[in-house]
Automatic annotation (TrEMBL), chains A, B:
The lineage of its organism: Bacteria, Bacillati, Actinomycetota, Actinomycetes, Streptosporangiales. The keyword Transcription applies. It comes from Actinomadura macrotermitis. Keywords: DNA-binding, Transcription, Transcription regulation. This is HTH tetR-type domain-containing protein. The keyword Magnesium does not apply. GO terms for molecular function: DNA-binding transcription factor activity; transcription cis-regulatory region binding. Pfam families: TetR_C_11 (PF16859), TetR_N (PF00440). It comes from the Bacteria.
């Protein structure tokens, strides 16, 4: 908490650059083979080219740093605007498709792979990153129900699992076809029964 | 290829026990933090309490061993029997639910997490483990279409992704409610639009 406190120029370009370097370094380390075990404040500081103090100024510990970096990397899910349920779900689906492309995908598997070993880290990730996104998706579904476009007896949990799961599935490595979000939303809306 | 070739008793209980020990050791190592990198013929032999020769007799290399162990661990997807599309999909969904409970889940995330580092391993896993299962699911869907129960214009890829994805999603740690397979199949069949 010493340097830069007095000499910092107006605005925060330097600390923002440092923050980005720290987040990127954390995600890189997470994506590497040792996953969560390979992330330490020391290793992140070295890779980001910053002092450990600079990291501790913003994140109190390794868990907070990992969850914070993952939260930053996730494409946000926009709130429903309500033109139609289909449009709102399409926005969600497009955000999910965008999320696959970032560095987040591989990190997510690292995290899931060691979730049993770091239950608190995972719980925090769920609370800070997953739940706010799911809540936005539930809002889109509830709005659709209110407006009489979606079934009132809709199974929210299962619907979310199918919608989110559809974007996790065709093995994370592959690029999705550009019309994939639309195909998922339409299949979800219409169902597969004749 | 020396011991046990001449002295083996009738039947194969001993080699089956060895095979099970080898598969279990491979899955345990895979599930540990270093994932694919932590699996070596040497480490598996030590943990399983067998000689390396015993492993090489059955699996020519580490990649074959990992894919073989994962294939063994996966609950099989039964072929459709055709009582109804709903019944066939329910059998698929129950197999997917059962697959979450085994040791396979965590190993799968280890594998996905390092898929970029081991592209051939992942390709082989996809070909030997994922594809045969998907083909069985497609068969259930095609049978449902033929019998006029499912939409003829059904998007097979998206349907599979939603069905499989629904079982990957509610974070792999949690137990699923017992009626979950039924809820997924019914949501999939009926769709969510009013």
């Amino acid at each position: 908490m010493t340097d830069s406190m007095t000499t910092r120029p107006p605005g925060r370009p330097r600390s923002e650059r440092a923050e980005k370097a720290i987040v990127d370094a954390t995600l890189e380390l997470l994506a590497e083979e040792t996953g969560v075990a390979g992330v330490s404040i020391e290793a992140v500081a070295t890779r980001a080219g910053v002092g450990k103090t600079t990291i501790y100024r913003r994140w109190p510990n390794k868990e907070a740093l990992i969850v914070g970096a993952l939260a930053t990397a996730k494409a946000p899910v926009p709130p429903p605007v309500g033109a139609s349920a289909r449009e709102d779900l399409l926005m969600v689906a497009r955000a999910l498709a965008a999320g696959r492309r970032g560095p987040h995908g591989r990190c997510f598997h690292s995290l899931l792979g060691s979730a049993e070993k770091y239950p608190e880290l995972f719980a925090r990730y769920r609370q800070d990153v997953i739940e706010p996104r799911r809540e936005m998706m539930r809002a889109a579904l509830r709005l659709g129900i209110e407006r009489g476009e979606l079934r009132p007896d809709l199974d929210l949990d299962v619907t979310l699992a199918m919608l989110i799961g559809a974007f996790g599935m065709p093995a994370s490595q592959e690029a999705l076809p550009p019309d994939y979000p639309e195909r998922v939303v339409d299949a979800l809306l219409r169902g597969i029964a004749l």
